[in-house]
Write a structure and sequence with these properties.
8 strands; 54% helix; single chain; endopeptidase fold (from Nostoc punctiforme); two-stranded parallel ribbon; 4 helices
């Protein structure tokens, strides 16, 4: 059988004495102290939270400021790089323009020099043509004077014989009127000739019908010595009867012929291209 346990309350030996009991704290005091303590703790908690929030905000602000600074710096670097690249492109473009301008100026100088040279060459050619024309005119007048003198004289010259009554003058006049015309193989005029076509047409003006080709014309008249030529004699190159070229002697060591495609109808010196023989038709 279990024994009943009776709680034994131990009391201080002075508990029965009123003056020795600890005074009890009333409820209002405890509540007030609890409230004060709670307020302090709340204040500390708020302060702690506020400090943490401020610290977090400060950290966030610093992070945002650093990010913004980094982005701004990157933008400035990019702008500087773009500006540098654009400046380099501008310099390169200007250099290309300067080079092109220098090349154009050099080419202009070359073109100007060429133009001046061409003008000088044309002037020289014109002067030479005028000199030659004057010489031809002088030769023509000399030939006419010689012809008239020979016609009036009973004696013959050792170099120029008297032509038939005006016929040779007609032939020479026609020939000189064709100077400058083109040479064309087989040409018979009126603006282009070959050598035998020109001679045939010239003598036809004086009423003489000559064969068409050089070989036949070289034996169409009386053979004469090259040292005793007369104005109007037909000169030939090659063998008589098979000559390859003909012309007409116009006096003073000159002859007129349709020379070749590069020269056309011209007056030339016999000394530069001596004939093989001559025949006299008039």
């Amino acid at each position: 059988m279990r024994e009943s346990l009776v709680p034994v309350v131990l009391m201080s030996h002075t508990a029965h004495i009123r003056s020795h009991r600890k005074p009890r704290r009333n409820a209002s005091t405890l509540a007030m102290r609890a409230g004060v303590a709670g307020g302090v703790l709340s204040t500390l908690a708020v302060a702690g939270a506020s400090g943490a929030a401020n610290a977090a905000e400060s950290t966030t602000t610093q992070t945002l400021d650093l990010s913004a600074l980094t982005a701004d710096l990157a933008a400035q670097v990019a702008q500087s790089a773009d500006a540098t690249q654009q400046a380099a492109a501008n310099y390169e473009l200007q250099a290309e323009r300067d080079a092109a301008a220098a090349q154009a100026a050099q080419q202009a100088k070359v073109d100007l020099a060429d133009a001046k040279a061409k003008v000088a060459a044309k002037k020289k050619a014109a002067d030479e043509a005028a000199r030659k024309a004057a010489a031809e005119e002088a030769a023509s007048r000399s030939s006419e004077r010689t012809t008239l003198s020979a016609s009036a004289s009973t004696s013959t010259s050792t170099t120029v014989s008297a032509p038939a009554s005006g016929s040779v003058a007609t032939v020479i006049a026609f020939l000189k009127a064709q100077v400058g015309d083109a040479y064309v193989m087989g040409g018979t005029g009126p603006n282009s000739w070959d050598c035998s076509g020109l001679v045939q047409a010239a003598f036809k003006q004086a009423g003489v019908d000559l064969p068409r080709v050089s070989g036949d014309q070289s034996v169409a008249g009386t053979p004469v010595s090259l040292s005793n030529l007369a104005v109007g004699d037909i000169l030939y190159w090659g063998s008589a009867g098979s000559a390859y070229h003909v012309g007409v002697y116009i006096g003073d060591g000159q002859y007129l012929d349709a020379a070749n495609p590069s020269k056309g109808v011209v007056i030339q010196d016999l000394s530069g291209y001596p004939a093989s023989g001559a025949v006299r038709v008039l």
